[in-house]
Amino acid sequence: MAVNHGAGEEPEDELLPCGQSLMELWEDPAGPRVPPAGHPEECPHCAAALAELHALEEFVTRSRASEAAAPRRELSVSTVMDIVRMELRPGRTLPLGEPDEDAWIVEAAAAKVFRAAVDALPEVTAGSCRIAPVGAGGRHPAGRGPVRVRIEVVAGMTWTVPRLAEAVRDAVARAAGERLGLEVLAVDVVVMDLVEPAGGNGRTPW
Amino acid sequence: MNGEPALADRVLRAAAAAAREVAGVAYLRPGLAEVLRGAGGRVARRPAGVRVRPGRSAGSWEVHIELAAARGHRAVEVTRAVRAAVTGAVAEVLGSGGAVPEGAGAARVAVRVTVTDVS
After folding, report:
1. I want to staple B60 with a disulfide (CB 3.0 to 4.6 A). Which of A157, B44, B54, B108 is the partner?
2. Its domain of life (chain B) (predicted)?
3. Considering only CA atoms, which of A16, A9, A10, A13 is closest in space to residue A36?
């Protein structure tokens, strides 16, 4: 039943030619980390990636310093990092709207909306979310047609797995219809863990 | 022939301006290269998030808009509003330029819209 149509798993991270994880490097450029085996100490690939990060940081700083630089839209650090993530891994291009429309959304953007909808459930945290077209339907033009969603979640012990799966499916279906206009045929919910609530804030550690 | 690049530039700028003004468009896709260029303090030469090219039939144009939809707006409705706005703006450019008979511009513009982020 839960067959993924062509939804082959992609690596969770972007790797530089030297084997270093780009996101790890950006998140912790100076701190201790375990480099890939045989990784040189003065690595040109890592240096180039960090130079790009510094350029981005400078851009954010300037945007913050000058309101005139962004009169209509606020540019924050998280906005810029969002842009970077979307640029690095936009994922598949998925059809929006009716079969005869030329409207699309990238997988990463749709997944972001689905994860936010699932995170809004009490004591539920969404993890990886992959979205793929369901085969090539006969009545649909190339690349268009409904999609299948696979989403991983961790939830508090107050949930039973069937109730959790149903709530997650409802949240994803509602977000797909109300916020995107994306036709979802099926939602595969993968419950990674049921855990004790962390502290008193109702959020579950991922 | 040398009028085509100038017309392409006008089509591109008209499409970008029209798309930016649509409610629910947070920003046109900047692209990492554009962001980095911005870090150098220079204004991007061409509007980001918009590509145009002549269509298959004579006098027609294909426009591709890439944008971030704003939260609170249904993404597909944003793409429809953008298509309508861009089609009208580009048709106006084509009509005023004498490239096609007046009023025929809209039929000669195909607009693809891709949502690259929801922010």
Report:
1. B108
2. Bacteria
3. A16
